[in-house]
Amino acid sequence: MIEALRNALRLPDLRRRLLYTGLILVIFRLASNIPVPGVDRVALEQLLTGGSATGQLINLIDMLSGGAIANFSVLAASVSPYVTASIVIQLLVPIFPSLEQKLREEGEAGQRKQNQWTFFLTVPLGLLYSFGLAQSLSVQANILPNFGFQQGQILSTISILFTMTAGTMFAVWLGELITEQGIGNGLSLIIFGGIVARLPRNLVQLWETDKVLGVVIFLVLTVVTVLFIVFVQEGERRIKVQYGKRVRGMKVYGGGSTYIPLKVNTAGMIPLIFAQSFLTFPAVIAQFFVKPGQENLASGIVAFFSSNSPWYALLYFVMVVGFTYFYTDVMVQQQNLPETLQRQGGFIPGVRPGKKTEEFINNIYRRITLAGALFLGVVAVLPYLIGYLQFLQSNVMLIASSGLLIVVGTVVDTMRQLEAQLLMRHYEGFLQ
Description:
The protein has helices at residues 2-10, 12-31, 41-49, 53-61, 80-92, 97-106, 108-138, 154-181, 186-196, 199-233, 270-287, 297-305, 310-335, 337-343, 355-389, 401-424, and strands spanning 236-243, 245-248, 251-254, 257-263, 346-347. The chain is mainly alpha-helical. The strands form two sheets. The protein has a three-stranded antiparallel β-sheet with strand order 4-1-5. It has a two-stranded antiparallel sheet with strand order 2-3. The protein is globular, with a radius of gyration of 24 Å. The model has no long low-confidence stretch (mean pLDDT 76).
């Protein structure tokens, strides 16, 4: 791997792409420390360390933002609104078959149109997401004293919402720059940078509470979790496909055999994002009705959805498993493998083309998705399981297991892209 990296750095084009990617990530991290206008940093720190339900909820949402929410920076919303908009568009398009067929026929132009819709939807979602975050802090005394719709607060409120939404679009733009001129998927690397940025802080916290034992134990847990993630993420079921021979003039085409790789975890990180969104939504709405120092139904809802109770962990696990099946079915329908095989003259030995092939592939997908769904469910609740063991004073992980899934997937994808670039120039790649 080191030799392959040296080969990449020797090539001017790849060296420029790697340095460009690093520069964009540095810019993103610097912007993550620029606070939103009017926020009281001292009061915010007291809230996050005070152990209140609201503070725990903000810490929970802060996991994938790399500390941007804890700092309440201009990038507090990060790329979450864009990811949500992308998921919504992906789910809405299949609902209208004529629209889906039209976009498919347009090819690259249809993909650009779908990306444009995603950008348009990101703006209102960014405003809504920013309002929810700001409102959750404005109900706490002296954190956002100028946020609200009372007299004298309108301009500051508009300034806060527009600044946070602009921060989201800036983060998305940085991700697009990496995709176009750097190495790897830009948005994945932006999220990756935010997750990894928490690592030094978590190491310091572990060292202060549990010294060497805590660091060693969580290093071992992190390595084991990474190996488990790689093993399942790279797992696939291969279905043999045979192509019939076609004679055109004096030449014979086709007649070979290959296979279709069906991934064990087709849905990737999407079910975790869905489940987290559904579980944080009631708490965000309840924040609007929380009154400081008073116990009511809203404060109870916030406390439940920001707690580490077994019921919350069980609900999280069930929702992740359910969303894994749901999103996998959506992805399978979009791929339309039976029709593609039939159009290319391929068939699965022993299975009739058309409806029978569709049923055969769906049955296999449903069986292997069970392993993928249970895998994602365990990854989601792993921090809660470790917290229940109570063998250390600190319950923090070096990187949350759901964050590790993003980190591992991003690293593997970036390595594959580098490997492809090296192989084009006759160098040995990373993956053997």
